[in-house]
Amino acid sequence: MKAGVLIVSNDKTIFDFIKPKLVLLRNNDNIYESDYNDALDVIEKYSPQIVILNCGYDLHAFSELLKKIKVPVIACFEDVNPEYLLTAYDYGVSDFITRKSTSEEILARVMFLLKTTIVLEKKDAAFEILKNNQIIDELGFFSIPEKIYPYFLSKYDTGAFVIFSVQETIDNRIQKIISESLRDSDIKAQGIGNIYYVFMPFTDIDGAVAVVKKVISKAEGLAVYAGICSHYGNKDFNALNNILENALNVAVASKKEYIIIDDNLTPSSNWIEKISSNKKNFKLFKQEFNKMLEQVLTPVFYQVQAKYETRFYNTKIVHSITPELSVFKIIGEFFDSEFRLRSSGFSAITIDIVHNTDEKKITIDINDLEPKTLEVLLEEFVEEHRMYMEEKC
Q1: Which of 152, 179, 188, 361 is in the most buried spot, having the most CB atoms within 10 Å?
Q2: Rounded to whole angstroms, how far apart are CA atoms 220 and 239?
């Protein structure tokens, strides 16, 4: 591939100043010259990869021509002038040099931009191939999540995964919103129907939550829900997808904007510290605690309910989460069982477990309030109900 460079100037001495600096370009690389009047015709005829555009002292003519050039541009100034620089960057120049720039500096800037441009051209060509084969769409969403994500999961050891669901939309508004909320390094894909995946390399749970909140805030009028989990290099896509789908199902069922299900982190990696920082103010402590408690309880309650509600004959499982009291209840044919959770001051969680007329109390430290802990306690509660039920029968 030839590295075509076009030097545009109304001052012919600029050509003699710049051309000797490009001695390390390959022999078959082309260096073109043009004044302002012929610049667009030369670009159309020879398709140079970059343009070195001399400004001189006519900022208006420079900016007007710059607006019309669609290839990467290095601006050339007499000296560093803040007004000229701001104007140039406003219209999208990639870099700049001056009459005082050394030969090494000019060559380095030209070579770097050429390499960058070639990489981008290859990327665009690959994008076209993927698009023509219906593997990726105009907005950069891959169409086969189960095929593309194993590669990226093996490439990046850490990151955050999000699955979005949007209810009843037939346009691509949500795709645009998701794209605008992401970085170029994030990998997005569309699943079946209105399901969208986003993998964010080297991003933690808090970062993923920030992106989800940004998407939901922009999606006015759309019912958008999300499931979130982390990737630490030890799960394949199928395992992560199961976690994401469970989280999303809980979010949709509970009408929560998002649900986090994660083996590695509590819903917010520093939520204990946030709560502890408010211990001098009980009201603030309660507000923060109730918010975080809901995030911990909601997915666990829904998962255990979904797991057991069809296993008991003539039995119904319900739950409720409020700032004052959270209850997981099994309504059986012969008796009911209740799992009641409330906070006790700044440091303890009190759990009352009632089976018919039998009752016991458990107290756990607030620092132990994690999804796994609650899941174990609930599993024990359900097993106790089963044993009581067998005795009754």
Answers
A1: 188
A2: 32
Location of structure tokens 């600096």:
21
Among candidates 245, 239, 247, 380, which has minimal Cα distance to 308?
Answer: 380
DSSP E strands: which ranges in 35-134?
50-54, 73-77, 95-98
Of 230, 221, 211, 294, whose CA–CA distance to 256 is shortest?
294
Per-residue pLDDT tens digits for 296-338: 788 888 888 878 877 878 889 988 887 778 899 999 888 899 9
In this predicted structure, what is the pLDDT of residue 1?
42
pTM recorded for the entire structure: 0.55
Angle between helices 59-68 and 82-90 (to 10 degrees): 20
Cα Rg of the chain (Å, integer)? 31
Residue 181 shares a structural domain with residue 241 = yes
In a domain, residue 265? The reply is no
- The residue segments making up the domain with residue 358 are 271-392
Verify that 197 and 172 share a domain, yes or no.
yes
Residues 170 and 255 in one domain: yes
Residue 323 domain flag: yes
70 within domain boundaries: yes
- Residue-wise pLDDT for 327-373, tens only, equals 999 998 888 999 999 876 666 788 999 998 889 988 887 766 777 78
pLDDT in tens, 164-173: 999 776 678 8
Q: Which of 228, 260, 292 is the last residue of a domain?
A: 260
Number of domains the chain is built from: 3
Same domain, residue pair 338 and 384: yes
Tokens representing 6 are 């076009």
- Position 9 pLDDT exceeds 90: yes
The one-letter code for the residue type at 104 is: E
Residue 74: name the closest of 32, 23, 114, 118 by CA: 114
Of residues 12, 2, 5, 130, the one with CA closest to residue 71: 5
Q: What's the CA dihedral at 123, 128, 131, 135 to 10 degrees?
A: -40
Residues 6+ positions from 389 with CB-CB distance below 8 Å: 312, 332, 334, 335
Nearest-angstrom CA–CA distance, 30 and 48: 8
